[in-house]
Amino acid sequence: MSLRVLVADDQEIVRTGLAMILGAQDGIEVVATAVDGQDAVEQARDLRPDVCLLDIRMPRLNGIEATRALAGPDVADPLAVVVVTTFDLDEYVYGALLAGAKGFLLKDCGPELLTHAVRAAADGGSLIAPSVTTRLLKGFATRDTPADPVSPLTDREEQVLVAVARGLTNHEVAAELYISLSTVKTHLGSLMGKLGVRNRVELALWAYQTRRLD
Length: 214
Hints:
Helix 4 links the parallel strand 4 and strand 5 (about 105). Helix 7 (about 155-165) packs across helix 10 (about 200-210). About 40% of the residues are buried. This protein has helices at about 10-25, 35-45, 65-70, 90-100, 110-120, 130-140, 155-165, 170-175, 180-195, 200-210; strands at about 5-10, 30-35, 50-55, 80-85, 105, 125-130. The longest helix is centred in the last third of the chain and has 15 residues, at about 180-195. Strands 2-1-3-4-5-6 form a six-stranded parallel beta sheet, with helices on both faces. The protein is about 50% helix and about 15% strand. It is of the alpha/beta class. The chain has ten helices and six strands, in the order βαβαβαβαβαβααααα. The protein has two domains: about 5-135, Response regulator (Rossmann fold, 3-Layer(aba) Sandwich); about 155-210, Winged helix-like DNA-binding domain superfamily/Winged helix DNA-binding domain (Arc Repressor Mutant, subunit A).
């Protein structure tokens, strides 16, 4: 079954280009395009696509506000959102991820990374443009250190947490720690429950904030 994607950008040439790139990939179908954030939210709520690809700077409702409406902490049944932008600004990155986005890309990322991000988001994972990842995480690490979880992490959970924060995929974590893929997923679920986070990006942020990585 194809992944169903909604693409939102107020610039027609960009919107069409993103839709063409994704539509040309095996297993991906662009089911809708939107001209602004409000249009994106309305169509996404109606169509329930697997992934919403949203530009940040759009009229009526910007991409961060649209992300919060579709994937924010108060949304009962959140959708997977990947944010794309021309502007490599920390405030955009922080805003998008805190609003619930599972990915953050620059528009010059290329078809391969764009496709990877969409597939990762649909699979419950996340992807941030490599050019901003380290800066982003270190920036969050300078903020207030979060409280320790009520239930302490096990040694294995600590290992999985650090591996995820380093950017490893589930398969890579399994290979590095000599455990099964299902065990990795079990540990990730436990980590998210203990730390009160929603995705791998927030796990990585927590690891940096608590100085698990330099």
